[in-house]
Amino acid sequence: MNKVTILLSALLLTGAVASAKTLVSVNGKPITQEEVDQELMQATQGRFNQVPADRQAAFRQQVLQQLIGKELIYDDAKKSGITKSAEYKAEYKKLEQRMKKELAIQVWQKKLLDSIKISDKELKDYYKKNMDEFREKESVHARHILVKTEDEAKKIIAQLKSLSGDKLKEKFVELAKKESTGPSGPNGGDLGYFSKGQMVPAFNDKVFSMKKGTITQKPVKTQFGYHVIYLEDKKPSMTRSFNEVKAFIEQRLKMEKFKDEMKKKMDKLQKKATIK
Questions:
Q1: From the CB of residue 87, how many other CB atoms can be counted at a distance below 10 Å?
Q2: Is residue 37 in some structural domain?
Q3: Dihedral in degrees, nearest 10, Cα atoms 207, 213, 218, 221
Q4: Do 149 and 190 lie in a common domain?
Q5: Per-residue b/e over 138-155, b at no fewer than 16 CB within 10 Å?
Q6: What pLDDT score does 219 carry?
Q7: What is the pLDDT of residue 52?
Q8: pLDDT at residue number 17
Q9: Could you point out which of 20, 52, 75, 275 has its C-alpha 20 to 30 Å from the C-alpha of 208?
Q10: Full-model pTM
Q11: Which sign does the torsion angle of CA 204, 210, 214, 215 carry?
Q12: One domain for residues 20 and 69
């Protein structure tokens, strides 16, 4: 592992990334947390929080490595005279012209969006009329060990039967890493949270009938093989409160009004314009 990778791993594992403004410096040029966050949001189209938690740190490290690579290449390009070449200057001018227009459009649209206000009454009315949208199904957090044969599964269950509490979980994670053939094996068999219907029927029916902190006493057979399941947590169905979803509703209603306002403005501008 090279020094850069070790440094990045240390930052990510210790949580320094969450608080530090400057993550690393490349030949004197700082790379900040804000830059990494922007890249992550662009790469995931604003859905980075929906990336599984076990993959977020690796994704952050990948983006940081890419930013470091860009700085190294840009630094070398400057040293080799690329930024002073006629080709670079010509391409830069073309890009500048495109960006002037794009930036003006973005600022214009942002100004329009910022001018749109949503009243508390509109927010509450939407919430009351769309309660189903904010209902969350019963969900569970489970781990599993997937093996090819029933005998293999039974042997694993035999090793776990006498355990409970933290010892059961620790041993389950250890065996998942060692024995499971499923893609979640290296992560201790962790499947994260999921709601009813997301897993195949046999697995789904069993896991939702289990008690928190227990394992299946018999192997569960599916088309993938034989599963030993550990139920880590269970969340009942619930409806998110108005305060929890208020910001989401406001953004949605603003975007709906923004689209309407955009159409009105575009119609008005087209009527005034000379388009041949």
A1: 8
A2: yes
A3: 30
A4: yes
A5: ebbbbbbbbbeeeebbee
A6: 97
A7: 79
A8: 41
A9: 52
A10: 0.50
A11: negative
A12: yes
**pLDDT at position 143 over 90:** yes
Q: Is residue 212 a contact partner of residue 234, using CB atoms and an 8 Å limit?
A: yes
Give the contacts of 122 (CB within 8 A, at least 6 positions apart): 253
Q: What average pLDDT does the structure give for the chain?
A: 89
Residues 210, 245 share a domain: no
* Enclosing domain of residue 79: 3-84
- What order of strands is seen across the sheet that includes strand 190-195? 190-195, 139-147, 225-235, 220-222
Mean pLDDT for 250-272 is 94
How many Cβ atoms are within 10 Å of 68's Cβ, its own excluded? 19
Distance CA(187)–CA(53), nearest Å, equals 12
Strand partners, 173: none
pLDDT at 19 over 50: no
Give yes or no: residues 122 and 155 share one domain.
Answer: no
Given a contact cutoff of 8 angstroms between Cβ atoms, the answer to whether 33 and 20 are in contact is yes
Q: Are 184 and 224 in contact (CB under 8 A)?
A: no
Confidence of residue 18 (pLDDT cuts 50, 70, 90): very low
Q: Is 81 helix (H, G, I), strand (E, B) or coil?
A: coil
Q: What is the pLDDT of residue 49?
A: 75
Q: What is the mean pLDDT of residues 73-88?
A: 94
Q: Is the pLDDT of residue 14 over 80?
A: no
Bridge partners of residue 195, in order along the sequence: 139
Q: Using the structure block, give the residue that is written with the tokens 């009105």.
A: 264
Helix (H) or strand (E) holding 135: strand 135-136
Q: Are strands 22-26 and 220-222 parallel, antiparallel or unpaired?
A: unpaired
Six token digits for residue 273: 């314009």
- The span from the CA of 160 to the CA of 167, in Å, is 9
Residues 154 and 231 in one domain: yes
Cβ burial, residue 95 (10 Å; 0-12/13-18/19+): exposed
